[in-house]
């Protein structure tokens, strides 16, 4: 995989010498194109226990899975190359004790539409879902965690009382630096990508900072869980977000990696929602 990525990067670098604009757009499309995210047969069996609703953002279908209850309404947002089925261990417990659960598939993931995945589009999906279902709790993993945090900064969710961030990336600049390292892009492509990001989304790489945005909703009760040995999102990024949320609780795990599959993690989330 890494060798293949380097070959692609070498090709785009060569293309950039002759046509920087074409190389930049190819690099952007590659960055926004998940390789995974399809629903497995096992996940499909679980998701089929829900009521399915299809919402829309600018004619792009958003698939929402709903388990109705009589208690708190909780909305789940998965991360990159995943889908709503990843939340099964959480949903099984929470629906059994009477909560209303909503989980959505991100753009170009699961059963949702979209030609590409980017965080601003995911935020628009989540905003549509929040307007429809008025959740009191948001739970996100990885890019889903980053997306719900940015959502509440950009479109404050008035019904929201609590937020759970699992292994949250904090800085777009770090994500793009990792992308450059993986593909071996030259600095001309990266500078052009940053210009394209500003044109499309109105921000430079270093302007997107979840710790900075978190200060705008520091009164919100928040739980952040991050593994010390996360090899996808640096542990320090979860700590940085927590440090800017005065009402937050930060839990460090060891040996669970980025996905945080653990009964202890599930219990911490359940207890936080119940508190």
UniProtKB/TrEMBL annotation:
Residues 1-22 form the signal peptide. Gene3D superfamilies: alpha/beta hydrolase. GO terms for molecular function: hydrolase activity. SUPFAM superfamilies: alpha/beta-Hydrolases (SSF53474). Keywords: Hydrolase, Signal. Residues 74-178 form the AB hydrolase-1 domain. It comes from the Bacteria. InterPro entries: AB_hydrolase_1, AB_hydrolase_fold, AB_hydrolase_sf. This is Alpha/beta fold hydrolase. It comes from Sungkyunkwania multivorans.
